[in-house]
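tool=predict chain=A
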Amino acid sequence: MAADPDPVADRVETPLDHAHAAMVAAGETEPARRVFFAALAATELHVPLRDGGGGGGGATADGTIRPLTLDIDGGPIVLAFDTELRLATFTGGGGEHASLPGRALAQLLSTKRLGLGLNLEAAPSAMLLPAAALGWLAESAAPVSQTTAPISRLRRPDAATPDLLAALDAALARATGRARAAALVGHGDALTPRLLIAIEGAAAADAPDLAALLTQTAAIAAPNVPLDVSFLDLDDPMRDRIRSLAVVFDLPDPAVPMRDPDRPPRLR
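tool=predict ok
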């Protein structure tokens, strides 16, 4: 099934490759694994689908995808790749596939007790993830209720660990083109520290997706530190006050837009 490796595909490293390399370099400690899984949850993955055969195609009538499965010693797995080029490199091109966020794929596979073959034969981040790991990711990336606490008692974000900062940085790369910047501060009661990430210049239509992405990322990477999300206009007077205390993430422009996880997977 595998095609000859594409030399161009082999040279291009993705954010998921970087997260995987950092996890390995750190000795696969729990914090490093959490950062990698947060990156995986935020990454759009491309999944080859079953052939039509009897006319069913790669999706059912209600839009549920039917991923291609492979049987290996550890049990059946589904293949996924973090770029379409890597998918084509492995499959030789052609065939239908679906694209959906890693968190959505983990939820789908965990209900079917399927493992995941990630970037197999296509990238330095190639690895096998058992069904149990996907179940953990699906549970950790479940929708997080949004706190509407007012912005008050701002302070420096001392509760933000380097691992959380790395995970948020990777997640915000998915927001490129949908916001201008983000600023992370501490806020609220000093006895129960919370973090607040203020998203600058986002359209109202993008707010729910961005809030879900960031709160789910934080829930995976640093579950003991609550994260609130706020949205600021670029002329909001609170912006300078927050930035004076914050870790600021600037988002470059132009961008690749982030997919809405509530929409059905794109089929090609």
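The two ends are 19 Å apart (CA to CA). The first strand starts at residue 44 and ends at 48.
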